[in-house]
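Service request form, structural biology core

Requester: graduate student, group of Dr. S.
Request type: structure prediction, single chain
Budget code: on file
Notes: please return the result as structure tokens.

Sequence provided:
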Amino acid sequence: MRLAIVGPDSVGEGITATINAMWGGGVAILLGILLIRNVGRYPGVEKAASIIPGFSVSFGILVVVLLMLRLDYSRWVLAGSYISAIVIFYIGYSGVFGRKRLKVGVLALEDHLDEPLDVAGVEWLTLCDPDHDVLGLEAVAVDLRRDLPIEWERRIADFALAGVPVYQRKHLIESLTGRVELEHLSETSFGTLSPPSAYMVPKHIVDFVTSVLALVLLAPLLVIVAVLIRIDSPGPSIFSQQRVGFRGQPFTVYKFRTMRNRHEADKGGLDAAITRENDDRITRLGRFLRRTRIDELPQIINIVKREMSWIGPRPEAAVLSSWYESEIPFYRYRHIVRPGITGWAQVMQGHVADVEQVRSKLYYDFYYIKNYSLWIDILIVVRTIKTMFSGNGAK
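Core staff response, request fulfilled:
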């Protein structure tokens, strides 16, 4: 069959094109729902906010398939299906589910009642005794590892029998905050400390192919930015730095220079490696490049060299990494996956500098490793695009 660009030349071709678009649109809608459901299960994600990205990805895949198979299709039917799906689902989620707060019960005898109370979108209700009414609760959070009074153990069993979900408190907090706070490696519940190779291998293949294409397509932009940097301030356009990457191996990362050029002797110290709030070393153009994340584009070369990925924990300077390892237990575990140009900690927290902020960032990295999958990568891509326009988290 030949691809109809403007429109079918006959009634038969028109019917075929319409049927192909209708069937394809139905499949794309189902795939979009699957994407929305899986992406929407991550913390801080309103399903209404993931509707446009979800359906855009699914209908984009459909168009690629139709072009590859050279099938006739009606662009108007396909566009109508796409717009209708977005409007209907957005009204449904925004009107029915969008303003709903999650009500979770916590036992009054828990030791850390104050820990989950700051989670946005969650209303915590303290259950003072086993006979407390749980009507209207979506879930109950309990520390199932501690010894509970026999009356509470019976009541918790009753909750489950009544259809009220009972969650291990620690796991529920992880899913709501997007952080995994490790006290012992045996408490990660990963089953294995290594992320699933079933996703890691194809992800690295896609990283390599897309980075080669991106390098070719973005070459003119990279050249223009490099020239503007040289015009804006004296010094080289590219900044290189030794950082710690996959499996703890050092590598050289490339970025567009956003700071005033310093002597080589100043580049290796701890203070020089830390970028602080309103850092006076950042140039005028550098602030724009940082805010839009354009300064990270040369790292596409690192992806081509298989030293980095598009998505993963951000690589730290070698001098900072050594400092963090001496201060924070399990810090090295973040090197179990390839570092990325963007990552879960970046879109959730932004740039950090001091040890306590790094510790918090590390919890986000652990959450990403624990939930290492296509779905969380899609969410990170969507949030990164949003961050590029808003500039949040940049320094």
